[in-house]
Write a structure and sequence with these properties.
The chain is α+β, with helices and mostly antiparallel strands and 224 residues long. It has one domain: Protein Transport Mog1p, Chain A (3-Layer(aba) Sandwich). A hairpin with an 8-residue loop joins strand 6 and strand 7. A seven-stranded antiparallel β-sheet has the order 3-4-5-9-8-7-6. It is 25% helix and 23% strand. The termini are far apart.
Length: 224
């Protein structure tokens, strides 16, 4: 079974260290700051009203041509994610649920491409009540991943929209489960947080994959 999001995904207190089992494709959920929401420009009727409707807006293939992994072959299982599912990634699910509620988290969907070993790509789309919650969530995920991998975030990087952050990990970080070079990117688009991860074979390949799949994914979402 292929590792997906780490089982211990969640908020990590200052000074704590997370060591997930297996390959890390998406790291820690951000801190629990209160979110001051503002209305999105997209009409509510344009937004998915269930995880199943959200699924129809996800990309079905990636530029690298990697085969899609069945949701039930990823651990934890990919596919539909409700608030309680994401909260269980944390070592303190009850506390995490409260943090997600502050973000205004509604539901999400995960999808992976790859094989048991070698390059892998993951796409994560999460929907929120307000666009401010989506933006805060994406920013906090990016900051926590940068800390985990001891990297420097690129804000508004070339090749991505202005609402995105990017992290390139040039060398493996085996102590946190990352065994190949990787690229991570996080964007917010209206009430959606969109993130992608590409692992291997080189950091240049990973950046190219992340930027291309994010461009494809953002085009499928309702206007921001």
């Amino acid at each position: 079974m292929t590792p997906g999001r780490p089982a211990a995904r969640g908020r990590v207190a200052a000074g704590a260290r997370l060591v997930p089992a297996g390959l890390v494709l998406l790291a820690l959920l951000g801190c629990g700051r209160a979110v001051e929401g503002t209305a999105t420009a997209a009409a509510p009727t344009d937004r998915p009203s269930s995880p199943e409707e959200l699924e129809r807006l996800l990309v079905t293939e990636v530029p690298s041509g990697l085969p899609r992994l069945p949701d039930d072959e990823v651990h934890p299982a990919a596919g539909a994610k409700r608030l309680e599912d994401v909260a269980r990634y944390s070592t303190d699910p009850a506390r995490e649920r409260g943090i997600l509620e502050e973000y205004g988290y509604r539901y999400g969907w995960e999808r992976f491409w790859g094989r048991e070993a070698g390059p892998m790509t993951g796409v994560f789309v999460d929907q929120f009540e307000q666009r401010a919650g989506a933006g805060r969530y994406a920013e906090d995920l990016a900051s926590n991943d940068a800390e985990l991998y001891r990297g420097v975030l690129s804000e508004d990087p070339p090749g991505l929209p202005a609402s995105c952050r990017q992290l390139v990990v040039e060398q493996p970080v085996p102590e946190v489960g990352l065994d190949e070079p990787a690229a991570f990117a996080w964007c917010w688009h209206g009430v959606f947080s969109v993130s992608a991860t590409a692992v291997g074979p080189t950091s240049r390949d990973a950046v190219r994959e992340v930027q291309a799949v994010l461009a494809d994914q953002l085009e499928l979402l309702p206007p921001a």
